[in-house]
């Protein structure tokens, strides 16, 4: 349903003339003031939206959009992660799954590099629709491999999945950075992260129910994949329900800031300007690091734990992640401290436990080598299971807190949707590069301590670069200069508002 001033459900006819005046004069004045750079202007409430019926406001509101993005993550990446969290995709060994993930993230890395301009052309909604059509194919590839032993199909689907996954990664990143208001960013990103993990939680519950009697090592039941395929089909309806970005409104009626359409040549120039910006260069290593642990620790789980212990893990860690990230999102939104102080607190929240986990895991690997520990199960030796599983649980839960934090941190610098698309695309480019390399080295290296040591090395590179980026965070929201400095958004906005108020709009 359109929310234009001249055609909004529930708006009385007596307002038509005034609304047409707003549409023909006010918008023209605003567009003229920004010299064509912005279609919507920040801090100007949409009166037609505020007068619309409650169900329309809910449907177009940012909160409902976050739930839909959560549904997309639930049925797509969450189901993929749930399969991966079985350890090696639930297969008897992790090597095929690691090769497929390496192929997927390599293509996704290339895709997300140019994802910003592509998303700006396709739009967030259509990018999500295209991506959602692929979700069930990935689950089907694991089913075919488990039933017929067709390993090449898993790797092939992983490779083409990088294209579709890259579209989704940049689309949802753009929305996370630009849709919420500054004071609600942690809360809304927390909703998205929690819904993504609720998908893994459900997937884990299914895996545990199907595989609870399998105490040995090996592959999970083939029925597990059929259930995942059904859940992956939910993504397309969710994508179709998304509102086009130009129609999305924040709770106070303010539209999401939109930059005007640009040519491919200009999009490329703006992307290059983003790439060489100091913030982008500082963001590269933290983004590369953020999910590097995935290949390292899913291999760890696959090689040393029983089938039902892996199934229990796929249920237990999403539950803990939901609880942790919900609280963490509220913590970094707290008004008790300045924005910069919250940035430092949020950094310590996940970085300190991860540093401890790396030391813990290195000690465990030495013990595994000495005692040849495999098939660790929570019923046979609970103490050993807890001691060996806890570092995996900590790294997985704080890993999502790390991603939530990095989105929140980048949101401190974002302005309009198109700028956020470039930032989000580059962020996901570096992130998927880390995932591709992590899974790649875990599919080839016989000594699994080597990927762990590489992960530790990247951690020590990440700490100083992220610290420098935190020092650039303004004390208060919106006190920043955009990377592309598109006509000094804030100053132009205030001038446009003053002009429209002078006309009595």
How is this structure best described in words?
The protein is an all-alpha fold and 505 residues long. It has one domain (53-246, 276-487): Up-down Bundle (Growth Hormone, Chain: A). 72% of the residues lie in helices and 1% in strands. Strands 1-2 form a two-stranded antiparallel ribbon. It is globular, with a radius of gyration of 24 Å.
What does this entry show, briefly?
The chain is mainly alpha-helical and 505 residues long. The protein has helices at residues 16-33, 47-51, 54-60, 62-75, 77-84, 95-113, 115-122, 124-132, 135-148, 151-178, 185-211, 223-232, 235-241, 264-275, 278-290, 293-304, 307-333, 339-371, 382-411, 417-444, 449-471, 489-502, and strands at residues 38-40, 258-259.
User: Mean of residue pLDDT?
Assistant: 77
Radius of gyration: 24 Å
- In CATH, the architecture is Up-down Bundle
| CATH homology superfamily name | MFS general substrate transporter like domains
Based on CA inertia axes, which overall geometry fits?
Answer: globular
Give the % helix. over 70%
Give the number of domains.
Answer: 1
What's the topology here?
Blueprint: H1 16-33, E1 38-40, H2 47-51, H3 54-60, H4 62-75, H5 77-84, H6 95-113, H7 115-122, H8 124-132, H9 135-148, H10 151-178, H11 185-211, H12 223-232, H13 235-241, E2 258-259, H14 264-275, H15 278-290, H16 293-304, H17 307-333, H18 339-371, H19 382-411, H20 417-444, H21 449-471, H22 489-502
Antiparallel strand pairs: 1-2
Task: Provide tags for this entry.
two-stranded antiparallel sheet; 72% helix; 2 strands; single chain; 505 residues
